[in-house]
Write a structure and sequence with these properties.
19 helices; mainly alpha; Growth Hormone, Chain: A; 474 residues; single chain
Amino acid sequence: MDSAANVRLNKGELFAFSFLVVPMAVIGLPLAIYIPPFYSGTLGLDLAAVGIVMMLARLADVVIDPFIGRWSDRTRTRWGRRRPWVIAGVVVMMISSIMLFMPQISISNLYLFAWISAIYIGYTLIEIPYGAWGAEISGDYHERNRITGSRQMFSLIGLLVAITVPIVASQSGDHGTAASRTSMAALGIITAVMLPICATVLFRFVPEPSFHHTEPIAFRQGLRIALRNGPFRLILFTVMLGAIAGSVNAGVAILFLEKVAGLASSQSSLLIFVLFLAAVVGSPVWVRVGGRIGKHRGVVLAGIVSLCAFALVPAVIYWLKPIAPEWVFPALLAIIVVQGLTSSASPILGASMLADVVDLDTLKSGEQRTAFLFAFLAMVRKIFEAAGVGIALPILSWSGFNASGSVNTPFALFMLTAMYCLVPLALWVGCVFIVAQYPITHERQQRLRGALERRLARRAASRLAVEPRVMPAD
């Protein structure tokens, strides 16, 4: 049984493994940013109802996360543990992306609920086994940064594709809106076409890691062990705060940029494009920073720099805009560049940190359950993402904000500013403080991995010793 402790992927394998996140990112961005204005502004559904529907759909998806993780960990097929689940997710996402982004029948809240629920489930069927696959490929501290860094780079490429399509659509005279029927349909088609191609490349060129036999434990016992894992709890708390902050911020981003900042649709789309382009540029930097100063310190450093820049948004709106409105776009562009350059630190180093925590969990629980831990965090993240969009949009509706109107009250615009900036800012400060307490350094991870490899080797030797030997025939 080969050890994953020092496995290093070559560039071709790294490309093949990371390629799948491109279509997932292409569809993931619109779910967060474009679905609310598309179904409320373009298709005419009530804004508060859209927020509630998205929250309920997210909560419906949450229920299946731990089961997918647990079943994936315990799947045994000739094709591996993770591949069958990824195939199922690809099929579900191909169908639901077309139905959600290219609606051909009368639109209703029930239609939105059905197909956004389906696409969330398909996404989960891919995300959890795929994430576990990546965490198990290598046990090396730095190689894990490299794998998550590559995956983040390809994810950002997908996000750039997702934001470029609306920019092109808004410039082509398609009613001047980023969330138009044309741009949404293009995103749905791109996703449906790319998913099977990227999955085929993954299956062809990246072998699944060797499975180490471990003893299964009961669900409740495993959950108690996970919640007693100190580093895992810290990651859990940051996921809670970060998910609700990101959901609130992303769910109203387009509305804020156009209704409060007064930017044109093309300028709003350009800002988001620059955000992700800067993130691509910054990604390799954070892989190196995490290797030099430690993963959690890299996240803290990036968080402090990003929050200092984002805290300037209210000054741009309430001080700069009244006296020099022509400088609002350049000022927000500068803030976005800083945020973009630092934004990759958390997904790259955070995912690598979770892979290290899985080693500690395997030592404590005795079971290799990478997908379960990924699924548990995904479940928590989705609950808080659902809470974010389910709270923010109804609050805006209560404040009198009109997404399709050209005039809103100062109070409604202030509430939109609070949802975009002030509330997320406070929550992200909490995230930075929690991450600073994370205890697994490079040296401790090496000790953990060494102890885990020795335990797995002893278990394998023990199994070989008790297995009956087949005597050769005379």
